[in-house]
Design goal:
There is one protein chain. The protein is an alpha+beta fold. It has 2 domains: 11-113 and 231-244, Ribosomal Protein L22, Chain A, CATH 3.90.470; 119-226, Ribosomal Protein L22, Chain A. Helices cover 33% and strands 24% of the residues. The chain is built from 8 helices and 11 strands. The strands form 4 sheets. The chain has a 4-stranded mixed sheet with strand order 4-5-1-11, covered by helices on one side. Strand 2 (77-79) and strand 3 (85-87) form a beta hairpin. The longest helix is centred in the first third of the chain and has 22 residues, at 47-68. It is globular. The two termini are 18 Å apart.
């Protein structure tokens, strides 16, 4: 089995892949899924959605297996009390990861040290005031102050940064989306500006833009405690084409 070395201090590995695969590829990935994941896949009404779910979870398992040194089907995943997936404690490996997928694209963040969250979204028109319903007053004001042609990108920058932070934070829906602020404007770097009840939050958390295909926006959040961290982009082709006949 090809193997990826441990991620290393101050590094977050980013993996990205297409979710639209051939039937032979999907069949290989299907064999890596847990019984629970297989059941979830069968519940999709549309075949395309089942294929994309199976591809996202199967390739996530294959990537994680490279770090863990086990077969993809042997990767043990559990969820915390708020539903966030994590490596099972029986594997005794302090590996952190988070998966996101939208339309035909998936992204996975992996690191050794920090709680992390990642989000990717396809840019689509918005027909209602979603920002007003879910964003903080400060974020809404920043978006409304932009030119009309910049609105959609600003909305999705804000949305992916907030979603990545919520996923990294680990409390799920118990964390109100208006209880924290992230930067919105394109000219400003990704940053957590405020978190209710934590005056040091902006120093403890790091936000990053994720390289995404045209028509998509992505972000990563990590609770680094102020330590320096950088993103390292990985390629599925380097480890999977020979082993599994899969392509990026």
């Amino acid at each position: 089995m090809a193997c990826v070395p441990s991620v290393g201090k101050g590094i977050i590995d980013i993996w990205s892949w297409s979710l639209d695969r051939s039937i032979p590829e999907v069949s290989r990935l299907w064999d890596t899924l847990s019984p629970e994941e297989t059941l979830r896949a069968t519940r999709f009404v549309r075949e395309r959605d089942a294929i994309r779910f199976s591809t996202a979870r199967g390739l996530m398992r294959m990537v994680l297996s490279q770090y863990l040194g086990v077969q993809a089907s042997a990767v043990i995943l559990v969820t915390n009390t708020h539903g966030k997936p994590q490596i099972g404690p029986s594997m005794q490996v302090p590996l952190q990861f988070n998966l996101s997928h939208s339309a035909d694209r998936a992204v996975l963040a992996v690191c050794d040290m920090f709680p992390i969250g990642i989000d990717i979204e396809q840019i689509r028109p918005i027909n209602e005031d979603v920002a007003g319903r879910f964003f903080s007053r400060r974020e809404c004001a920043a978006i409304k102050g932009l030119q009309q042609q910049d609105y959609l990108h600003a909305f999705y920058r804000c949305w992916t940064r907030k979603e990545a932070f919520v996923k990294a934070h680990g409390m799920g829906l118990l964390l109100p989306l208006d209880s924290f602020d992230v930067t919105v404007e394109d000219k400003l770097p990704p940053r957590l500006e405020r978190l209710d009840g934590d005056e040091q939050a902006s120093e403890s958390w790091k936000l990053f833009n994720v390289d995404a295909p045209p028509g998509f926006v992505g972000a990563v959040a990590a609770m680094t405690g102020g330590e320096a961290v950088r993103l390292r982009y990985q390629s599925l082709a380097r480890i999977f084409i020979q082993d599994a006949g899969l392509v990026t």
